[in-house]
Design goal:
246 residues, 6 helices
C-alpha cells in the first residue's frame, strides 16, 4: 500500500502551529519548508522510535497521528500522549538523550527532521511547543486520575480539537478523527466496550456526532462534565502572547 505524499495541508500545519507560538522570520519559515522536503513516512502501527533508543534530533509531525506508548508484558498498552500535525518531537537537554517511551504511528503518518533552533524565532517556537507538551501531559494525568469515563472522553476530544485548530486542521465545531475506539481505550484507561457505550451516551445527550471519521460538537456537555478551571491550553498566561486565546 502506498502512503500518501506530503500535501500543502501537511506543510501548512507545522508552519501554522509554530507561527502561532511566536513570530517567525521569512528565513525561519524557509528553513522549516526546506526540512519538510525530506519527509519520512511511517505506516500505521509501525514504530518511529523505540524506548531507550538514542534520539536522532528534533522532528516535526507533518501528517497523521502518533502516540508515545508503554507496552506491558501481558500485551496491554497505555498511550501516554499524542503527537499530531504540527507537533514537535524534541530532544531532552542532556547529552546523548534516549527516548523515554516508544513512539508509534497510530495511523499512516509523515514526519521530518526539524531545523536546529539556532535563531530567536525557532528557539521561542520550540520552547512554546515544549510548554504545551507539559500542559497536555498534566491534563492527561488529571483526566486519568479523577474523571469519569464520560468526562475523560469529552475532555480528550476537546483537547484534540484545540490542538488541531491551532495547526489549522480543524473547523470551529468539528475535526477529522482517524483513530479507532480501541486506540481511545488504550489512551483513556478504559475498555473498548466502555468507550463504545460512553460514546453512545454522548450521542444520546446530543453532545457529539461521530460519523465517517468526523467528530462534530453538537451542543454543550452536561455541567458536571466540565472540570473546574479547565481552561484551554491556548489561554495559559505563561505561553507566548500570540498563542493565548482572545
Amino acid at each position: 500500500m502506498m502512503l500518501k505524499t506530503p500535501t500543502l495541508e501537511a506543510d501548512v500545519s507545522a508552519l501554522t502551529r509554530l507561527g502561532a507560538l511566536t513570530s517567525l522570520s521569512e528565513d525561519e519559515r524557509r528553513a522549516l519548508r526546506f526540512a519538510m522536503e525530506l519527509p519520512q513516512r511511517i505506516r500505521a502501527s509501525r514504530d518511529l522510535i523505540l524506548i531507550g533508543q538514542r534520539l536522532p534530533g528534533p522532528m516535526m509531525v507533518l501528517d497523521g497521528w502518533l502516540g508515545r506508548v508503554r507496552l506491558f508484558s501481558d500485551g496491554r498498552r497505555q498511550i501516554l500522549s499524542f503527537l499530531m500535525p504540527g507537533d514537535l518531537i524534541q530532544n531532552s537537554r542532556i547529552s546523548q538523550p534516549a527516548a523515554p517511551s516508544t513512539i508509534t504511528a497510530l495511523c499512516d503518518a509523515i514526519v521530518c527532521s526539524a531545523p536546529l533552533a539556532n535563531s530567536d524565532g525557532l528557539r521561542d517556537a520550540y520552547a512554546g511547543s515544549a510548554a504545551l507538551d507539559e500542559i497536555y501531559l498534566l491534563r492527561h494525568i488529571a483526566r486519568l486520575g479523577r474523571m469519569s469515563a464520560y468526562e475523560r472522553i469529552h475532555d480528550w476530544l476537546m483537547e484534540m480539537h484545540e490542538r488541531l485548530f491551532l495547526a489549522g486542521r480543524a473547523s470551529p465545531d468539528n475535526f477529522a478523527m482517524p483513530l479507532t475506539q480501541e486506540v481511545l481505550a488504550d489512551a483513556l484507561g478504559l475498555t473498548s466496550v466502555h468507550v463504545n457505550r460512553t460514546l453512545q451516551a454522548m450521542r444520546r445527550d446530543n453532545v457529539i456526532e461521530w460519523r465517517s471519521g468526523i467528530v462534530r460538537f453538537v451542543g454543550r456537555a452536561p455541567a458536571a462534565v466540565a472540570p473546574a478551571g479547565s481552561a484551554p491550553a491556548t489561554s495559559i498566561p505563561s505561553l507566548p502572547k500570540a498563542l493565548r486565546a482572545g
